Amino acid sequence: MLKLIGYLKPYTIFILVAIALLFVQALTELALPDYMSRIVNVGIQQGGIEDAIPQAISQETFNHVSLFMSRENKEAILEYYELITQDSASYQEYLERYPALETEPVYVLVNDTIENNEELKLTFGKALMAYAGVKSGGAEGNENFSPPSGFTIPEGADPFKIMQLIPENMRLQMLSEMDKMVDVLGESMIKQSAVLVVKEEYQKLGMDIETLQSRYVVRTGLMMVLMALLSTAATIMVAFIASKIAASVARNLRKDVFTKIENFSNVEFAKFSTASLITRTTNDITQIQLVIVMIIRMFFYAPIMGVGGVIRALEKSVSMSWIIGLAVIVLLGMIGIVFAIVLPKFKKIQKLIDRLNLVTRENLSGLMVVRAFNTQKFEEKRFREANEDVTKTNLFVNRVMVSMMPVMMLVMNGIVLLIVWVGAKQISESTLQVGDMMAYIQYAMQIIMSFLMLTMIFIFIPRASVSANRIHEVLKVDPEITDPDNPKQFPKDFKGEVEFRNVCYRFPGAEENILNHISFTAKPGETTAIIGSTGSGKSTLLNMIPRFYDVCGGQILLDGIDIREVKQHDLRDHIGYVPQKGILFSGTIESNLKYADDDATLEDIQKAAEIAQATEFIETKEEKYQTPISQGGINVSGGQKQRLSIARALLKRPEIFLFDDSFSALDFKTDAALRRKLKQETGESTMIIVGQRIATIKNAEQILVLDEGKLVGKGRHDELMKTCQTYQEIARSQLSEEELL
Questions:
Q1: Same fold, 2-34+218-475 and 498-740
Q2: Which is it for the CA torsion 423, 424, 430, 436, positive or negative?
Q3: What was the pLDDT predicted at 443?
Q4: How far lies 297's CA from each of 214, 331, 466, in Å?
Q5: Mean pLDDT calculated for residue range 699-706
């Protein structure tokens, strides 16, 4: 994957935007369990009262509570409050909020910055808890608070009047017990206990507790909805950006792979099968596209959620952190096992897909041969075996992947049960709140799901890595045939003289040359024919002129310039090439002919078709030149395909024509008429023909005879019949003595 990382560089800004949106998504989703915890703890259990710092408290209650504060703390707290009496200017305003103000003075919180003073908040909370203990305990005391030794509260006596008689230093000694409770219960439980006192005080002041509670629940619920909507929006935007980046990278990869393949010579094509190149351009790039989406959407998101979930869970309860650790260890063990099982299979799958594509392509392209020899059963068996190999491997991988989900669910449910079991015990001991336990469960699920997402990514990355390596194998190929750094230019009066000087060629990896010391000159206005037995190197020699192969020795010159010293585009711009097997593309007859010259007029097309003897069958078509051509030209005959290929080359009007046995599918009459027209219309061009039939080439100005890669004869037909034994054998095997004259 790292080998193709450069394709992501143009999208760095979009990736950073996606990561920022992932932070937004993660933070909003991490906030949801906390809001749920607040609804349970504050909205339901605490009646909507958020803090142990009361917004209002009667003077009498405050005096009783202050008995459990030092003088300095009492004075510090009073700085945040204002005593409202009937003589106060704001009396009427506060009377509506606190009806009890009509009968007694009330302290009202006027400076909210006390919320920032954690020490005073804790002091106030402990004092409220002590106040509740004395008030509820009376003479019997309270399990959370008891008067100092030596003092008892008589039954029926006002405990606070008794407490006022206790010296301040002894009352403060009583608060040391509260400090021990803080260590045992935690500050949150102290706050929750104190809030119950505040709630009771609000009821005493005549406040509407139900309205206060419903407002808090609704307000917190709306915040949850807002967080959910924000998370959804971020998720959609990240999905859009990830899909856009992945699709763009896949597009660029396909373009580069296709461009690279277009520049392959026949040598490079021999290294990769056509089926493999198709798989690499389609399936392999699709694998990379899928993984890029997963990486952008999950690879960055999962760690944020995992780390954030751990931090939030620890905020709720440190004592249950061992449960998260246990879950992580189990998950890591599962990931390791899955990796060991699945990784080798991913490397195998792509090769099996190559094999399946190869069998399918061979069967479809050779369907007529398969039917002719009644080998359908054999081909079905080949396909079935290749298909079953892919299916079995995919099923194995999918079964492993599918087993992950139930195992994950088992781990998740086990963790939930463990949290509930441990949490319930802590709730009963007043060291954990119900809402915090519920939030802890949600955070544990988020942590586990983060590991599940990472598992999915790490399982798919190896497969994508295999695909990336296969694509890189294509992209890193340096074609053997390249343009020179300082190319020469053909002269403006280019004539098209082709000269071979002592040319040799050897296929890569071969021990012997297929062509040896070939020298000849093909002049403009003349036809040079090449003939020889099968495998003698005729097509290879012809294909060296447009540099489909490069010489291993010697030179090929066009108008005196070595073809390796000019650009391939400039070279091929002067050549009209008709391959041995006519190739047509899906489209129409017109679009196939205009492949040589997109600006050609209908008159030019008709003239080229007439020379190629294609008019006779084109005119019989209902749509004429707009007649559709199927993929590969399967809806036209071999002879028609050859004639259209010849017409396409003629439409280019090049200085050099190369015909690689391009008349083999034509009958003798059409062949003769076509060659006669070619001679008339292309008389100034250099024409090189590879042929198998003596009748096709015997009128050429120059005939080259190849035998086992060597030039064994060169001259006209009548000369070769006298001097070249190989030519004589070929000629006499095809024509009678009368026809040879």
A1: no
A2: positive
A3: 85
A4: 38, 21, 21
A5: 88
Name the token pair of 671. 């062949």
In this predicted structure, the answer to whether residue 484 has a pLDDT above a threshold of 60 is yes
Length of the chain: 741
Task: Return mean pLDDT, the chain.
Answer: 82
Q: Are the beta carbons of 420 and 434 closer than 8 angstroms? A: no
Handedness of CA 417, 420, 425, 428 (dihedral sign): negative
pLDDT over threshold 70, residue 188: no
Give the torsion through C-alpha atoms of 235, 241, 247, 250, to 10 deg.
-110
- Helix (H) / strand (E) containing 594: none
SS3 263: coil
Whether the CB-CB separation of 217 and 41 falls below 8 Å is answered with: no
Helices 209-262 and 12-38 cross at an angle (nearest 10°) of 160
What distances in angstroms separate CA 535 from CA 306, 505, 705, one per listed residue? 67, 14, 13
CATH architecture of 498-740: 3-Layer(aba) Sandwich (3.40)
> How distant is the alpha carbon of residue 72 from its chain centre?
64
Task: Give me the pLDDT at residue 325, please.
Answer: 81
Cα 395 from Cα 701, distance rounded (Å): 65
Residue 206 is predicted with a pLDDT of 87
Q: For the whole model, what pTM was predicted?
A: 0.71
Name, in order, each residue with C-beta under 8 angstroms of 641's C-beta and a sequence gap of 6 or more.
Answer: 582, 584, 633, 665
Dihedral of alpha carbons 187, 189, 195, 196, sign:
negative
Instruction: Return the pLDDT at 232.
Output: 92
**Tokens, residue 64:** 């009783």
- For residue 311, CA distances in Å to 176, 224, 426, 509, 605 come to 32, 20, 20, 62, 75
pLDDT of residue 740: 61
Rg over alpha carbons for the chain, rounded to the nearest Å, is: 45
Residues 406-439: tens digit of each pLDDT = 877 788 888 888 888 888 887 777 677 788 888 8
DSSP 384-446: HHHHHHHHHHHHHHHHHHHHHHHHHHHHHHHHHHHHHHHHHHHHHTTSS-HHHHHHHHHHHHH
Note every long-range contact of 664-672, with CB atoms under 8 Å and residues 24 or more positions apart, other chains counting. Answer: 664/580, 664/692, 664/693, 665/582, 665/637, 665/638, 665/639, 665/641, 666/613, 666/639, 666/642, 667/639, 668/695, 670/613, 670/639, 670/643, 671/695, 671/696
Angle at which helices 12-38 and 434-475 pack, to 10 degrees?
160
Kindly list the domain boundaries of the chain, sorted by start residue.
2-34+218-475, 50-207, 498-740
pLDDT, one tens digit per residue, over 588-626 is 888 888 888 888 888 888 888 888 888 888 888 888 888
Is 656 exposed, middle or buried, given 0-12, 13-18 or 19+ CB atoms closer than 10 A? Answer: buried
What is the enclosing helix (H) or strand (E) of 153?
none
Q: For residues 176 and 367, which has the higher predicted lDDT (pLDDT)?
A: 367
Query: First vs last Cα of the chain: how many Å apart?
Result: 68
d(CA 728, CA 546) in angstroms, rounded, equals: 30
What pLDDT, on a 0 to 100 scale, did the predictor assign at position 141? 39
Q: Is the pLDDT of residue 140 over 70?
A: no
Q: In whole angstroms, what is the distance from residue 67 CA to residue 173 CA?
A: 12
SS3 of 730, please? Answer: helix
CA distance 58 to 66: 12
> Of 132-141, 294-303, 512-521, 596-605, where does mean pLDDT reach its minimum?
132-141
The rounded distance, in Å, linking the Cα atoms of 283 and 199 is 66
As a whole-number percent, the residues of the chain with pLDDT over 70 amount to 91
Q: Residue 181 has which token pair? A: 């409770």
Tokens, residue 117: 């003073």
Q: What is the CATH number of domain 2-34+218-475?
A: 1.20.1560.10
